[in-house]
């Protein structure tokens, strides 16, 4: 699959990179073609790290650029800055960050094989390990939204066998377990609301249809369906030409195909492994914070009840966000999300 990767996607437009680096992040844009996974980072290169690295993973149909609003709020909160106007923030040096484009999305190369969550999570952490250039086992806290949260869920279950890293805690943003999500298709409303799941899982059909319509057009359709009803949240979500960043990334067939394969794996390998986990009693043995939209996911599920069934020794916290916030919580309610993430991180640092 990676033979289809058009590396021109890395430097076709770099306005998003300029903005992310203005927040104090570094990127590997000059080496992304050889390293295969594009990422931003802060405070973790070639040095001993005492604090856990906070790994932030985006979802569909986005890129690492989705972290701009919460990162800005996270930085402001950490530095005790309060401003509603222009702020030139700095990331606190004691909180290391690693923010990748998920393999196959954005500037990252598709995997050569399946985009199942175990393989994708492994590729992301391998890139982090390579960046660290250390033989010491490093502690991390993982947080993900949407598909990124599903990667985090897989890593959380596998945490005892994850090489090079000790996972202190995990944050899942606006998801239920994959097998639970598929069961929602037993209702007409569930099928209509999540139409893209079975559609994208048919990789060849979806890739050609999305390409024929225009990847950017399809992305904008999805984003408009899933964003909330709050004017403030919608404005925050669209700041810094974010919609254009995501739409432009889907101009490339490799991104369309890889993202579809992500959903195919969700219908095959991922759900099969989750069913085996439940049968064999493999649960999440680290602490988990679940953040969700009360108007989006909260209307369909009791998140506390759902996730408790998947927990082992770990402690579960659940927090909902109302006031018209939609699926893109991190961008629609960045201050609240930043507060929740920082609080959980501090508890596990």
TrEMBL record:
Its keywords, alphabetically, are: Hydrolase
Residue stretches making up the AB hydrolase-1 domain? 54-339
Instruction: Look up and give the organism this protein is from.
Output: Lachnellula suecica
The family note in this entry says: Belongs to the AB hydrolase superfamily. Epoxide hydrolase family.
- GO molecular function terms attached to this record: hydrolase activity
Q: What name does the UniProt record give this protein?
A: Fluoroacetate dehalogenase
Write down the InterPro entries for this protein, in alphabetical order.
AB_hydrolase_1, AB_hydrolase_fold, Epox_hydrolase-like
Cited PANTHER family: EPOXIDE HYDROLASE
Name the source's superkingdom. Answer: Eukaryota
